[in-house]
Amino acid sequence: MNQQGDDRRNAKMKNRSHGIDRRWKSIGDPVGVFSTALCLLGLTFLFLSNVASAQTGDKPVPESAGLPRPFAQFSASDILKQISAGYDPATGRLSGILNKESKPALVRIEQSELWKVQGQDHLVVLVGIIADDEGSSGLCGNCFMNSFLAVLKRNGTALSLVARQLTLPPSGAPIKYESLDLNEVIEISGHDNVALDLAPYKLNSRETLIGIRLEHIWLPTSDWSTSLSLYRIEGERLREVFKEPVVEREYSAGTGRAGRTVQKTTSTISLAPASRTANRGFNDLVIDKTVIRCSDNDSDEDCDSKHEGFRQVRTQTELWQFDGQRYVHAAPPKR
Q1: What distance lies between CA 286 and its chain's CA centroid?
Q2: How do residues 88-137 score in pLDDT, each as one tens digit?
Q3: Which distant-in-sequence residues (6+ apart) come within 8 Å of 137 by Cβ?
């Protein structure tokens, strides 16, 4: 799957280079002095623009973040500036974090979704912190990027920050990218797909948790799984209170595809009133797991009911209870 992505990127680069070759050939053709002069003028302008960009090293982020209503009137810069006063809209950089080149790190909105909770519209955003300027064009397969969650709300026509996962240093005391607290960031690789999950995960009657799903796919090593993390708003901070795989695949040993199988475990999560008096006030988290097995004729295909050799192996239920800090695995609930 990632190889196909690399092939598509290589094909695009090849097409671009062919396009450049054709443009250079057209400049050399006898199309007239005026046309040639215009082409040369355009190339000169492009060259000078690139030189200026290289000298400053500044790469502004797009103004439009494609935000959902009722936040569509705001730009990406509006959001990022509200998340941190150290954000510079002119450069797209955050002064509080130094990247691996010791420059203020480029940041951008990776995802945003409307979150309706307690009768009010909120905006949940995932902010990416670019490790170095080369990474601003996208992650390579084995490259990594740190990111963090933030929640905002509207106050009339203005924005305000509700909570943020990452604790940023005070003004004038930037922190190095490599020194970020790993408990306060979400690490994403080029083999990952990330999605906000804003299903109503009710911690209690007053609080709803924010979810994020991370799908990791690296088929050459038969690694394909999805994890779910849940975050609680505590004052002005977002803190992880649960993280577990919700989709797991295990591939049988063997060198060839013939006779190999894949076993897939899918977890469905629900929250229910506490089953123990000691946990009153916090809902239990119930995980219903279904294990199925398929023939592994093509690792690019998923294991489902339409797959060859499909059969359900077993089901099981797990009970997780909130201990005041996190959800922890407890005994199975009584049926």
Answers
A1: 25
A2: 999 999 999 999 999 999 999 999 999 999 889 999 999 999 999 887 77
A3: none
The pLDDT of residue 138: 76
Higher pLDDT, 179 or 40: 179
Whether 10 is covered by a domain: the verdict is: yes
Q: How confident is residue 321, by pLDDT bands cut at 50, 70 and 90? A: very high
295-319: pLDDT as tens digits: 877 656 688 887 777 899 999 999 9
How many domains does the structure of the chain reveal? 1
Find the mean pLDDT for residues 61-82: 82
- The closest alpha carbon to 289, from 254, 260, 326, 246, belongs to 246
Residues 6+ apart with CB under 8 A from 43: none
pLDDT at position 286 over 60: yes
Question: How far is CA 128 from its chain centroid?
Answer: 8
Residue 34 lies in a domain: yes
d(CA 115, CA 195): 14
Residue 13 belongs to what domain range?
2-56
In a domain, 209, yes or no: no
Do strands 93-98 and 104-117 pair parallel, antiparallel, or not at all (unpaired)? antiparallel
Residue 8 forms part of a structural domain: yes
Q: Reduced to 3 states, what is the DSSP secondary structure of residue 190?
A: coil
Please give the Cα distance from 43 to 26 (Å, whole number).
13
Q: Say what the pLDDT of residue 47 is.
A: 44
Other CB atoms closer than 10 Å to residue 158's CB: what's the count? 10
pLDDT at 258: 60
3-state helix/strand/coil string of 121-135? EEEEEEEEECCCHHH
Sign of CA dihedral 279, 280, 281, 284: positive
Contact 296, 251 (CB under 8 A): yes
DSSP state of 185: S
- Axis-axis angle for helices 33-56, 2-28 (nearest 10): 140
Strands 237-251 and 261-272: antiparallel
